[in-house]
Amino acid sequence: MATAVLTISSKNYGAWALRGWLMAKLAGLEFSEKVISSDDPAMKAEMLLLSSSMLVPSLLHKGIKVWDTLAIGEYLNELSPKAQLLPADAKARAHCRAISGEMHSGFGSLRSALPMNIKAHFPQFKVWSRAQADIDRVKAIWTECLSTYKGPYLFGKQPTLADAMYAPVVTRFLSYDVPLDKACAAYVKHIMALPAMQEWVAAAQAEPDEIDELDAEF
Ligand SMILES: N[C@@H](CCC(=O)N[C@@H](CS)C(=O)NCC(=O)O)C(=O)O
After folding, report:
1. Which segments of the chain does DSSP mark as H helices, in order?
2. Which atom of ligand 1 is nearest to 55's Cα?
3. Closest CA to 160 of 144, 145, 173
4. Which of 62, 111, 113, 187 has the fewest C-beta atoms lying within 10 Å of its C-beta?
5. What average pLDDT is seen over the chain?
């Protein structure tokens, strides 16, 4: 039986949940999922036991509770150093932390204008200027990483914490038909082809439609 429990929310709408879940998969952690619905008041009390911030994702592993996505990523990197969630090279590692931090603390316009919704497709979606600036910054980050580390992932041959942080942006770019150049489009394909991503997307597709869109931060 798995000794770790990852608390998550909707697989269709839960961008932070996807980040934490993908990190756990990339780290090779055996875990069970606890899916909570923020609409259910009974769940709130249970939620507090699992996540001190009342936000997901939250990881419970051998009595250690870790909430907040970046903290989960750092914890998993310590737990499974061989998985190299952070690159071995110090310069690349600093770069990986910097762009992961940028995703963690920024891109508010992109998040609110293009919320994650894996099941949906909005062809020719009209993007407003601030969200466009966020999109342009994401593309610049990806382009720099892909040319520096030669792909197919942001830091080279294997996916890292940064790829998990940007995975919900990958699904958004597909949902909202965001135009991409060849290198960024190839990156999107590689992320979507990860077995873990395919598993997540299949579960999102199978999620009942009546799950309300999360009204907190995406
Ligand atoms: N900074 C947090 C953000 C987590 C977050 O905003 N999670 C959202 C959903 S993906 C949440 O739990 N919202 C409250 C709720 O759904 O009840 C992190 O890195 O984990």
Report:
1. 15-26, 41-50, 69-79, 90-105, 108-113, 129-149, 161-175, 182-193, 195-205
2. 12
3. 145
4. 62
5. 93
128 Cβ neighbours under 8 A, 6+ residues apart: 109, 113
Q: What's CA 86's distance to the chain center, in Å?
A: 15
Inter-residue contact 184 to 152 (CB < 8 Å): no
72 CB less than 6 Å from ligand 1?
A: no
CB 142 within 8 Å of CB 136:
no
Residue 5 pairs in a beta bridge with: 32, 60
List CB contacts of 65: < 8 A, sequence separation 6 or more. Answer: 50, 51, 52, 58, 59
Buried b (16+ CB within 10 A) or exposed e, 46-73: ebeebbeeebbbbbbbeeeebbbbbebb
- Per-residue model confidence as pLDDT tens digits over 64-115: 999 999 999 999 999 999 999 999 999 999 999 999 999 999 999 999 999 9
* Global confidence as pTM: 0.93
What one-character-per-residue DSSP string does 17-29 give? HHHHHHHHHHTT-
Of residues 41 and 156, the one with the higher pLDDT is: 156
pLDDT band at 214 (very low <50, low <70, confident <90, very high): very low
Q: What is the pLDDT of residues 181-200, one digit of tens each?
A: 999 999 999 999 999 999 99
Please state, in angstroms and rounded to a whole number, the distance separating the CA atoms of residues 24 and 72.
8
Residue nearest to atom 11 of ligand 1 (CA): 55
Query: Is the CB–ligand 1 distance for residue 38 below 6 Å?
Result: yes
